[in-house]
Write a structure and sequence with these properties.
By secondary structure, the protein is of the alpha+beta class. It has twelve helices and 31 strands. The strands form seven sheets. The protein has an eight-stranded antiparallel barrel. An eight-stranded antiparallel β-sheet has the order 27-26-25-24-31-30-29-28, with no helix packed on it. The chain has a six-stranded antiparallel β-sheet with strand order 2-1-15-14-13-12, sandwiched between helices.
């Protein structure tokens, strides 16, 4: 079982005030920890009304060589790359060369013909239902720092035969979507994806330190090296061996991202209509053109973060304020969103207002009882709503503040819970940054504690036709374990209030495990769900050949 994790911790925001006399020094203070000559760090750009207000580097691009980060240092953007892919697609649409309403198979016939067509719009807005390529590769035994090529990514995408959900029915962030978009750009334009962006976007905007990495082995001067923080709290090198374009693998500098941000204000490449499409959030997913569309302290925000081995990044535009900032870091320092928003707090202190706080209302106990129960989303995640001492709690620990009309708010994060109007409520919608989660009322099947005797039901080998991978469920002393290609993880039973028959969880990429039985009660398959893949099936297989030890 996945633990229900609210996406963003509630952050206090300063009250509106005049901009500091020296905002640059305030930004310097934010990055003080990352300014040492022995530390990797970050680079930052801030612009407003088309003018660059700040561009600076902190820490080292190469700790070993003593090369400092600066405005022209080239960082791996990770998923911040997606907005350039979306922009390329929208440029081609503006030229009449494709439509985002087109079936993806018009351009990529290798994609499986699912029961319902997947459109380019579905890819752009993460509503295709396609499983995430990285998660699938991990289930095959890859790790975050292993080599991954575009061919690897396309292979696992084309091998998919089932979706996380029907296209257009939910939000499901998936790198597979943007890998396919890059392929469509290549096939429609007749150019390599890297060449298309270089010729149509980077060069016209003067982004001389921005390029697509379609071969990680190539060396280029000016690149930041990737770092992480080890268990001993010391810095250590990371390996970034990705050559997967569309979803990631653009390198850029904060100097260049300021030029890119200026194009949102006054387009030199594209048209105002293309920019408007980039900034228009899909009604279902609130995802635009490679950007999450939302609000911060009362103003509209288009933004995106990135995380790959050794790098974290964030790009944010506030269109109405003509404000933009980017934070690029060559160290896995945590959440870059916090830095970007604190920078906005500094420079827009006289503009941003504290978010209006809705006061809780008193509702009848019958209204509270109406929504109590267990709900399950498409991935099998259980959401438990409990009533204790006259108050509702989500997952046992998050007090839910009633606002009336079947709506409640989280105490700890900017998340709202909306229940449908039936008695008892049938649907729970969790409104959260990045897209809504919809769960339906679910009656759990009672389950007893797992004993060593009952473990025998699950032991054996299981094969995934989509992944071409075999996993084995085995008993190790009094514990149940799952052994896969390159990994092994303990299978754990959830606490009693979340316990279901044949449902377990792991602390691994395998995520939540469910076993399925036939009419005779015999276990015949297991599924894996980890958030970005839903119920990947592994069919039970018998009598796999084994190699006996040499008996001489």
């Amino acid at each position: 079982m996945k633990t229900f994790a609210l996406l963003l911790a509630a952050a206090s925001v300063p009250s509106a005030a005049a901009q500091p006399a020296d905002p640059a020094s305030e930004v310097d203070a934010l990055f003080k920890q990352w300014s040492a000559p022995t530390s990797p760090g970050c680079a930052v750009t801030v612009s407003r009304d088309g003018k660059v207000l700040l561009q600076r580097g902190y820490g080292q691009a190469s700790v070993e060589a003593g090369v400092a980060n600066g405005p022209q240092t080239e960082f791996h953007l990770a998923s911040v790359s997606k907005q350039f892919t979306a922009f390329a697609v929208l440029l081609l649409q503006a030229e009449g060369k494709l439509s985002t309403r087109d079936d993806v198979r018009k351009y990529v016939p290798e994609l499986h013909a699912f029961a319902q067509p997947i459109t380019i719009d579905h890819l752009l807005h993460h509503s295709s239902g396609l499983r995430d390529q990285i998660s699938l590769l991990w289930l095959q035994g890859r790790r975050g720092e292993d080599t991954v090529t575009q061919e690897d990514a396309l292979r696992v995408i084309f091998d998919q035969r089932e979706l996380n959900f029907a296209p257009g029915q939910a939000f499901g962030y998936s790198n597979s979507n943007y890998t396919l978009l890059a392929l469509i750009v290549e096939r429609v334009s007749g150019k390599r994806f890297a060449d298309f962006l270089a010729e149509r976007v980077f060069a016209p905007l003067g982004m001389t330190h921005t390029y697509v990495v379609d071969d990680f082995r190539r060396i280029r001067a000016g690149e930041a090296s990737p770092y992480g923080i080890g268990d001993d709290k010391k810095f250590e090198r990371r390996i970034l061996a990705y050559s997967t374009v569309g979803s990631t693998d653009i390198r850029s500098s904060v100097e260049d991202l300021a030029r890119w941000a200026a194009n949102f204000r006054q387009p030199r490449v594209g048209t105002p209509a293309v920019i408007a499409e980039m900034l228009k959030g899909d009604p279902l997913t609130r995802y635009g053109g490679g950007l999450t569309i939302g609000r911060y302290r009362g103003v509209a925000v288009a933004e995106h973060s990135g995380l790959d081995p050794g790098f974290v990044t964030h790009f944010m535009v506030m269109p109405d304020q003509q404000f933009a900032t980017a934070v690029l870091c060559n160290v896995e320092l945590g959440d870059p969103v916090t830095f970007a928003r604190k920078i906005a707090d500094i420079y827009l202190a006289g503009t941003l207002q504290a978010e209006a706080q809705r006061s809780p209302v008193t509702v009848p106990e019958a209204e509270l009882q109406r929504v109590v129960g267990t709900y399950r989303d498409v991935g099998g995640m259980l959401l438990l709503v409990q009533l204790r001492d006259g108050k509702l709690f989500m997952q046992g620990g998050d007090p839910m503040l009633p606002h009336g009309g079947g709506e409640f708010a989280s105490t700890y994060a900017p998340v709202t819970f909306r229940f449908s109007g039936e008695t008892p409520a049938r649907t729970l919608t969790v409104v959260q940054p990045g897209g809504d989660m919809v769960a339906t009322r679910y009656e759990k099947r009672p389950a007893e504690a797992l004993t060593t005797a009952r473990m025998a039901d699950y032991l054996g080998d299981y094969y995934s036709p989509e992944l071409g991978a075999i996993v084995t469920v085995e008993r190790r002393k009094d514990e149940l374990w799952l052994k896969g290609p390159g990994y092994a993880t303990r299978i754990q039973q959830p606490p009693p209030e979340f316990r279901e028959q044949d449902a377990f969880h792991t602390e691994s990429v395998f995520g939540a495990i469910r076993f399925r039985r036939d009419a005779k009660g015999r276990v015949i398959e297991l599924t894996s769900s980890n958030g970005r893949v839903v119920q990947v099936r592994f069919l039970r297989v018998e009598a796999l050949p084994k190699l006996d030890a040499d008996k001489g």
